[in-house]
Amino acid sequence: xxxxxxxxxxxxxxxxxxxxxxxxxxxxxxxxxxxxxxxxxxxxxxxxxxxxxxxxxxxxxxxxxxxxxxxxxxxxxxxxxxxxxxxxxxxxxxxxxxxxxxxxxxxxxxxxxxxxxxxxxxxxxxxxxxxxxxxxxxxxxxxxxxxxxxxxxxxxxxxxxxxxxxxxxxxxxxxxxxxxxxxxxxxxxxxxxxxxxxxxxxxxxxxxxxxxxxxxxxxxxxxxxxxxxxxxxxxxxxxxxxxxxxxxxxxxxxxxxxxxxxxxxxxxxxxxxxxxxxxxxxxxxxxxxxxxxxxxxxxxxxxxxxxxxxxxxxxxxxxxxxxxxxxxxxxxxxxxxxxxxxxxxxxxxxxxxxxxxxxxxxxx
Length: 364
Fold this sequence. Notes:
Largest sheet: 7 strands, mixed
Active site: 244
Family: Belongs to the EIF-2B alpha/beta/delta subunits family. MtnA subfamily.
Enzyme class: isomerase
CATH architecture of the largest domain: 3-Layer(aba) Sandwich
GO molecular function: S-methyl-5-thioribose-1-phosphate isomerase activity
Shape: globular
CATH class of the largest domain: Alpha Beta
EC number: 5.3.1.23
CATH superfamily of the largest domain: Translation initiation factor eif-2b, domain 2
């Protein structure tokens, strides 16, 4: 996607092959900064501290982290250490393990001298595949927006509600939930996006709004609890969200608050779609509420807030009383029964094992 006319991916290898560049998302929307990763530990920190975030981008960053590790030490013990170090960074997004297992399987049979180059090639492949997958998700999902537009008057925009950031900043490029919006917008379809702020890290207010603003897509940032009100008053035509892990049965795990939006959509007859690349599907899990580990993050993400003051300074302030305990659950699980459909790179399907297997019969 483009920032001020220049095309960017969220992660890319340097020409010398010795470092990997990322956009530091913790500094958005107030500061666009590119950071270089040169070591395994730096890649692990980038994932853990959420300089990069979003399941597909976490996976791609982990793959490049393996490549950086192999430049320093390509022995068997180092390979296993790199895999374990990166796997421990964040527990919920399945793409992390998927990418690490894929790179390790590629490198393990090779002699150590060949591993660094092979790891970089594999990481590049994972990144390129992610771009192609997300573009395909955009094409399939845009059909839903076209259908909604056909039911409205020519001067009425299609109103889409999304939660968290599932745009290009959450992937290598294009995004998942925002990809259909970008495709439809480029086709000239009139649309408007309701952007949930997504407390506590405010990925909607700080990242999704930043993306849409730079791309020229009409949007409005709303507090997280406004969605139900908008749906009650007919102001939402469809919801599209992303997911960090989808079970074989169609349950979806996404940023905390997604479940509540799905309940509101169900109560008001608003279609609720989830956009996901196939590496996000965990075929080994059926019941998401029972089996998906939910990351609990530092309570300061809830008790503190960072923003830009009127004189341009970026400051962090405390918003809860001293001494009040804080819990910070980062994700929740939306049961398949509340999901209208899953948008994948292979098309649209019901949120069920049978539905997924129509698109991915090789998983039978």
